[in-house]
Design a protein that fits this description.
Blueprint (H helix, E strand, L loop, with lengths): L1 H23 L8 E4 L2 H11 L4 E4 L14 H8 L3 E4 L6 H9 L5 E4 H5 L5 E2 L19 E2 L7 H18 L4 H22 L20 E3 L22 H13 L4 E3 L6 H11 L2 E2 L19 H15 L10
Parallel strand pairs: 1-2, 1-3, 3-4, 8-9
Antiparallel strand pairs: 5-6, 7-8
Helix pairs in contact: 2-6, 6-7, 8-9
């Protein structure tokens, strides 16, 4: 009997060890490996795929994609992925270099370029981000990579993500299709909610959106986030010429409020406000990506709601609560 007890104890230890080994193993082992670059794209992918893929997001929420420096672990993930989804239009320049250099057998998709083949063109869109050096040449017209601020574009992004997930994981294709349809319905409601409810004012020429720069909007109190005006202001300490150009722009457009972005230095914003008497908005705008998960900008839907509310609140408008 004693021998039986010893044998049973050893068997129990073996069983517990096996259970511990299984629990320590990654629950994503065997799933398609999907690598996504920026936080907005990662959130949209997560909402469609959920736990059906092993999803790796390289650029965390609150991180500037333009200045992101890839890590050795990023390179490893890119080289072993089944599917790589990235923004395109030079949103993540350093990561794009690695993506293009990764093995040809990997499916690589610039989702924004597929979803929005004719993006807005920003005349002041110098996305070279030379880390402290002034551009040698004058800025030129380039595609604005922040296409998701138009919710209709985000719907197109959902469809592009759905198509590519279905290709690498066909057994989940119907599930992806259903989730995408549900999200499309939700995003359509969000788009309608975020648009102006009064007749828009006559269009005026204005500089387009630029990342990491304060937003100077000339929209009416019921302004939509879909088409904000942006003033030019680099994250680094601005030159006197650039500062004067922005001040002149704000004055000429009679800009009532300046919206700081979450990743921008307050130096230029404070200077512009002091020189032009424009007020600084209480809430920042999320422009280059989502904010941290615990904030109001933690998902795409919450980001759009937060930005729209910030614009309307600071321009004296009113809005009803959006309900998904």
């Amino acid at each position: 009997m004693k021998s039986l007890v010893v044998l049973s104890s050893l068997s129990l230890v073996g069983l517990l060890s096996a259970c511990g080994l299984r629990s320590a193993m990654s629950p994503t082992k065997g799933l398609p490996q999907v690598v996504v670059t920026n936080s907005v794209l990662c959130d949209l992918t997560q909402q469609i795929a959920q736990d059906s893929v092993a999803l790796a997001c390289l650029i965390s929420a609150g991180t500037d994609p333009h200045l992101y420096a890839p890590t050795p672990n990023d390179r490893k993930r890119l080289e072993t992925a089944n599917l790589i989804l990235y923004g395109g239009y030079n949103l993540e320049p350093e990561l794009e270099k690695l993506i293009k250099a990764s093995p040809q057998k990997i499916t690589k998709v610039a989702i924004s370029e597929v979803a929005v083949p004719k993006p807005l063109i920003a005349e002041d869109h110098d996305h070279h981000h030379d880390h402290g050096k002034e551009p040698k040449a004058a800025s030129k017209a380039e595609p604005d990579p922040h296409v998701w601020h138009n919710v209709q574009n985000a719907i197109n992004m959902l469809n592009a993500i759905n198509d590519n997930l279905a290709q690498i994981n066909p057994s989940e294709a119907e599930t992806y299709k259903t989730r995408t349809a549900n999200l499309t319905q939700q995003f359509t409601s969000l788009d309608s909610w975020s648009r102006p409810k009064s007749p828009p004012s006559p269009p005026q020429p204005h500089p387009r959106h630029h990342p990491r720069r304060p937003s100077a909007t000339t929209a009416k109190p019921t302004a939509s986030l879909s088409n904000p005006s942006k003033a030019s202001a680099p994250k680094k300490k601005p030159t006197a010429a650039r500062t004067k150009a922005v001040i002149d722009l704000v004055r000429s457009k009679k800009v009532p409020a300046i919206f700081p972005e979450t990743s921008v230095s307050p130096l230029l914003i404070q200077t512009i406000a002091r020189e032009t008497q424009a007020k600084i908005a209480r809430e920042p705008l999320y422009t280059d990506g989502l904010s941290t998960i615990d904030s109001s900008g933690g998902t795409y839907q919450r980001m759009i709601v937060s930005n729209t509310r910030a614009i309307v609140d600071n321009l004296g408008g009113q809005y009803k609560r959006w309900r998904p």
